[in-house]
C-alpha cells in the first residue's frame, strides 16, 4: 500500500500526523492540505516530542502550530515521500457500541427470533421507537479497546486464521486534548483536541462466548487482534470541524460503497459520550473515543473480509485511509 495519501484533503489549515522516512524513526508532523509535512521536533526544538506529548500542551501549542503552517521558510518535506503511521499512541481507547440508530434497527430486525409474530415493518417501527427512547433517556454503551490493536492508516491488516467472520466498522474517533473527569455534556467538547478516522475491525464469530452464553460479549477476542484498529491518517483540530454531528462516514470495499451514513444518525453525540466516559474514567491527552459504526457492516451484506480485500474509509474533512487485508497463516 502507498505510505501516505495526498489525494483527499482535510479541513482547516493543518493537521497532525506521525510520519517517518522509509528507514527512519517516526516523528510528530504538521501536515498541510497541499501535501507538505514538517517535523515538529526540529520546528519546536523538542527532540523527545511525540504527538501525544504535544496534545498534553494542546492549548499552548495551537497558536504555534498555526504560525508554523503559514511559514513557507520552514523545513517542509513532500508528504508523498513519507510513511504515515497511526497519528497518536493513546493510553486508553474507549469504544461505543450500538450508537447508530439505523444500524441497531437493522441488527435487531436481522436477529429476530424465528417465531417472532411481527412483520418486518412492525418490528422496525417498534425497535425505532425503542431507540428513540434510549437516546432520550438511557446511557451510552461503552467498552475498552487495546492500544496494541492500533495500526497505521495504510498498513496491511492481517486477518488471524481463527477469525472466521472478520468485519469492518468505520468510525469517527475523538482525540482527547486535556485531562478531564466528571465532565458535563456542555463542557465535554472543550476537552476534544481533534478528530480522526478509526476502523474498528470485529470478528463476528467470537463476539459472543459459545461456551458461556450468559457471560455475554467477548470484546478482547473479537476486536483486539494486532492491527484490528487502523487509525488516521490525521488528527484534524476540532476547531476545523464545524459540527462532528454532521459528517459523512463512508467505507468502500474493493471500490464498492458499503457504509455511507451521516453522524446525524448517532444516538449519543460526541459530547454525551465524552461526558459519560468521564463519569467513570479520568480522560487523558491522546485518549481515543470511538463513536460507533453506522449501518452497512459486512454482516449486513453477507460479505465478510477476506485475503486481498482493500478497504477505503473516509469521513468528511478528515481525509482517507486505505488498508489491504492479508490472510495470516496458521502459526505465523
Please state the structural category. Answer: alpha+beta
* SSE arrangement, N to C: EEEHHHEEEHHEEEEEHEEHEEEEHEHEE
Helix content: 10-25%
**Which range does the strand content fall in?**
25-35%
Backbone CA Rg: 20 Å
The stretches of 5 or more residues where confidence is low (pLDDT under 50) are none
Q: What is the 3D form?
A: globular
Mean pLDDT: 93
Helices, by number, come to 9
Largest sheet entry = 6 strands, mixed
List the strand order in the largest sheet: 7-6-18-11-12-15
Pfam families: FAA_hydrolase
Family: Belongs to the FAH family.
Keywords: Hydrolase, Metal-binding
Domain Fumarylacetoacetase-like C-terminal: 93-324
Tag the structure with descriptive keywords.
5-stranded antiparallel β-sheet, 332 residues, 6-stranded mixed β-sheet, 22% helix, Fumarylacetoacetase-like_C, alpha+beta, FAH, Fumarylacetoacetase_C_sf, metal-binding, single chain
Please give a structural write-up:
Pfam families: FAA_hydrolase (PF01557). The radius of gyration is 20 Å and the shape is globular. Helices cover 22% and strands 27% of the residues. The chain is an alpha+beta fold and 332 residues long. It contains 9 helices and 20 strands. The strands form 5 sheets. The protein has a 6-stranded mixed β-sheet with strand order 7-6-18-11-12-15. It has a 5-stranded antiparallel β-sheet with strand order 4-3-2-1-5.
Amino acid at each position: 500500500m502507498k505510505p501516505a495519501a495526498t489525494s483527499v484533503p482535510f479541513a482547516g489549515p493543518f493537521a497532525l500526523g506521525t510520519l517517518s522516512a522509509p528507514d527512519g524513526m517516526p516523528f510528530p508532523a504538521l501536515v498541510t492540505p497541499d501535501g507538505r509535512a514538517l517535523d515538529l521536533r526540529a520546528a519546536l526544538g523538542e527532540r523527545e516530542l511525540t504527538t501525544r506529548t504535544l496534545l498534553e500542551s494542546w492549548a499552548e501549542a495551537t497558536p504555534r502550530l498555526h504560525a508554523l503552517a503559514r511559514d513557507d521558510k520552514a523545513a517542509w518535506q513532500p508528504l508523498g515521500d513519507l510513511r504515515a503511521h497511526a497519528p497518536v499512541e493513546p493510553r486508553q481507547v474507549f469504544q461505543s457500541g450500538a450508537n447508530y440508530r439505523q444500524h441497531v434497527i437493522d441488527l435487531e430486525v436481522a436477529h429476530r427470533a424465528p417465531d417472532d409474530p411481527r412483520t418486518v415493518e412492525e418490528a422496525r417501527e417498534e425497535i425505532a421507537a425503542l431507540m428513540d427512547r434510549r437516546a432520550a433517556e438511557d446511557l451510552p454503551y461503552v467498552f475498552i479497546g487495546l492500544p496494541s490493536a492500533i495500526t497505521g492508516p495504510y498498513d496491511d491488516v492481517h486477518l488471524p486464521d481463527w477469525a472466521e467472520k472478520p468485519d469492518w466498522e468505520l468510525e469517527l474517533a475523538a482525540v482527547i486534548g486535556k485531562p478531564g473527569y466528571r465532565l458535563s455534556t456542555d463542557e465535554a467538547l472543550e476537552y476534544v483536541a481533534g478528530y480522526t478516522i478509526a476502523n474498528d475491525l470485529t470478528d463476528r464469530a467470537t463476539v459472543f462466548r459459545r461456551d458461556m452464553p450468559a457471560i455475554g460479549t467477548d470484546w478482547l477476542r473479537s476486536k483486539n487482534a494486532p492491527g484490528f484498529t487502523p487509525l488516521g491518517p490525521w488528527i484534524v483540530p476540532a476547531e476545523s470541524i464545524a459540527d462532528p454531528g454532521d459528517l459523512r462516514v463512508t467505507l468502500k470495499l474493493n471500490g464498492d460503497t458499503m457504509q455511507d451514513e451521516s453522524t446525524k444518525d448517532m444516538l449519543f453525540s460526541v459530547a454525551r459520550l465524552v461526558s459519560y466516559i468521564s463519569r467513570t474514567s479520568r480522560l487523558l491527552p491522546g485518549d481515543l473515543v470511538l463513536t460507533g459504526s453506522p449501518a452497512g457492516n459486512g454482516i449486513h451484506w453477507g460479505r465478510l473480509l477476506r485475503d486481498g480485500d482493500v478497504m477505503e474509509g473516509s469521513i468528511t474533512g478528515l481525509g482517507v485511509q486505505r488498508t489491504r487485508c492479508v490472510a495470516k497463516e496458521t502459526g505465523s
